Amino acid sequence: MSTGKVQRIILFDIVRGAAIIGVIFYHFVFDLRLLEFIETDISNHLGWFIFARVLSGSFLVLSGVGLVFAHHGGMRWRAFFKRFFVIGIAALGITLVTFLTYKEIFVYFGILHAIAIFSLMALPFLRAPLWLLSAVILFVLSLPMFIRNPIFNEKIFSWIGLWDTPPMTGDLVPIFPAFGLVLVGVLAARILLKYNLVGWLASFSPVGAWVKFLVKAGRWSLIIFLIHQPILLGILTPIAMVVNTRVKTEQSELSKQEAFYGACFGNCIETGGAANYCASYCQCSLEQVEQGDLWAVINSPLLDKEQSEAVVSILNLCVAMSGK
Q1: Which pLDDT belongs to residue 254?
Q2: Are residues 208 and 287 in the same domain?
Q3: How many CB atoms lie within 10 A of CB 18?
Q4: Domain span at residue 268?
Q5: DSSP string for 94-162
Q6: Is this prediction's pTM over 0.85?
Q7: Are residues 269 and 132 in the same domain?
Q8: What is the per-residue pLDDT across 3-29, written as a single tens digit (0 to 9) for each?
């Protein structure tokens, strides 16, 4: 490989920035479902599944590209392990937080865990022959299509990736096939360097506010990844508490109305009333109770004179209106 510092390629920052914005959008919709704002379960929706895999795949490929560009002139071990420990600590933090908040689906081998471990695993391929690298990529990407076993359904083995039923977790990026995407990034970067295509790719430099925004987001993607969920949940959870309380109150009111109407209709039928008459009579009674806010009166075991007169007035009115 050639030596010297590789010119920064803005296109990669743009892709990384677009990917992190996509992650924020995905988690925003996920949180809306989690907090019961919407009914769509995106974890079981094919389109959202593909979207999530494209996002995680982008980060994996770019991590492989970055690994080659960072060390193409010789391993910079201090920089490598600094990055490794930063990502590793962040990954462990995510595991701890998700275990404390969502124990049943806590993240034990998510995208950050994978990037940290896969960076170590990819080191031999920074210098390996391209034909060998290509063969390993093919092997890692294709093996899950041929080998599946229930033993890998267990969390202790699921990070390998050869399960037949995915385990319950908030995020899982297993070796097979995800490590193959990191190696795809390694292969792509090595080809760019080998055939002197880096300068040509670096010359792609679009301008505009959105470009600057995506570049900035791409360069701060790790920080954004770590803080975006606490921010989203911090905003949405209080709103959900208010909205859900209102919805439950409305549902309670609806259940109360249904119970009143059902009891009234049943009693009316039992006393010989016709179905049409009973439906009209009970609907009228419900409307009068609602308009007069007489629920406390209806549910009271003892009525005073004024309350009794109000109930009798409703009965007489609804009997007259129902045509009996």
Answers
A1: 67
A2: no
A3: 16
A4: 255-321
A5: HHHHHHHH-GGG--SB-HHHHHHHHHHHHGGGGTS-HHHHHHHHHHHHHGGGT---GGGGSHHHHTT--
A6: no
A7: no
A8: 455 667 899 999 999 999 999 999 999
